[in-house]
Every structure is written in structure tokens, then in C-alpha cells.
Amino acid sequence: MVKHLTYLMDPFCGWCYGAAPMIQALRAEANVQITIAPTGLFAGDSGGPMNAEFASFAWTNDQRIANLTGQRFTAAYRTQLLNDHSKRFDSGPATLALTAVHLTAPERELDALSAFQLARYVDGRDTADLNVLAAILGELALHAAADRLISGDDVLVGTSRKRMSSARRDMATFGAQGVPNLILSSSETRQLLSGGLLYGDPAPLLTRLRTT
Q1: Which residues pair with 28 in a beta bridge?
Q2: Which site among 60, 87, 157, 187 is 20 to 30 Å from 148 CA-CA?
Q3: Number of folded domains that form the chain
Q4: Helix axes 130-139, 92-104, angle to 10 degrees
Q5: 17, exposed or middle or buried, with CB in 10 Å at 0-12, 13-18, 19+?
Q6: For residue 142, what are the domain limits?
Q7: pLDDT tens, residue by residue, 3-62
Q8: What CATH number is given to the structural domain containing 45?
Q9: Omega before 180 cis (within 30°)?
Q10: Which of 103-107, 154-158, 184-188 is predicted with the least confidence, judged by mean pLDDT?
């Protein structure tokens, strides 16, 4: 039986980047299907301009994530994004880019998310910039998504908003506090899985999925 997982996330969430190895392990499972649900947690008015106070908080938090998960947060990311106060901390453009992939090549959306995370946290590229995001999509040969992102048509924008609204409703329904989180769906029930299962040894989560 295929296990359906809804992945509540935000492309600017460091903890979601920390969970990337577990998401890859889940993708490798033949009977697991993952659907991205962007929450817009840091999108638009929920984000904001970068400043010294937030940059310090983010870097401290990033080091906790790195120590727990082994994920890399490089000097390029710190210098070119956190310490550049002309930049915005706004996941709206990256969420829109994911939706462009969702509409044109849905089977590649997790690939795009991974590429955006690596571009930001390892390469220090500004993934709040539509042109940077379009370039990354081009590097993945997701040209239709890149073109659609730059054109910003009404269907794309409307679909992105609907996906964020749906994800936020799921968060409210299950009392999810932040991201990342997973919702496991079957033909009869939906249940929230602890976000803590997304870090460390994948065996407990994989065992739970195989036996549920």
C-alpha cells in the first residue's frame, strides 16, 4: 500500500533544510509518495528585510541545525545573504518557483526544493530573487517552470496562494507548531507525525511507515 505524506515546509526554513536527508530517504522508499505543501511561513509580510539582529539569530539557529543534522551552512551564505542587509528574508518568490514546477513538472518539485536549499545555504545565492530562481530552474532543465516564474501569470500566482492557504489550514487542523512536519494520509485517516522524526536515524520513521 502506498503511504501518502504531505510535507509541510517553507523553502527558507533552516530546519526544513536540516530535514532534507530524511526527505531523500523517504523518496527512496518505493511505497512512499510525498506531496510538498508550502506554508508561506516566511513569505511576504511574514518575512522582511535582513538586519543584524535577525542575521545573528539565524546564524546561531543554523549552527544548531548543522550540529544536529550535518547539513552545511557556509561562509558564503553568511556573508552574501545574512550579512547583506539589502537582501530580504522572504520565501514568497521561492514558493512561487516551487508552484511553477508543481504546474509544469510536478514529479520534479522535490528536486527543485533541494536545489533552492543548496543554492542558498551552500552557495550563498539569493533565492529571494526571481531571476536567481529562474536560473536555478534552468540549470535543472526545468525551462517551462523558469519561463512561467518570470511571466508570473495569474494562474501561477493564484495556485501558489491556494497551496499556502491549504497548508496553513492543515497546520491549524493538526495544531502543527511551525515546520517541517509531515501528515500521513490513508484511505480513512490523516495523522500528524512528529517533526522530530525528520532528524537523525531514519529507521524509526521508516519502520513506522512500513507498519502503519
Answers
A1: none
A2: 87
A3: 1
A4: 40
A5: buried
A6: 3-211
A7: 999 999 999 999 999 999 999 999 999 899 999 999 999 999 999 999 999 999 999 999
A8: 3.40.30.10
A9: yes
A10: 184-188
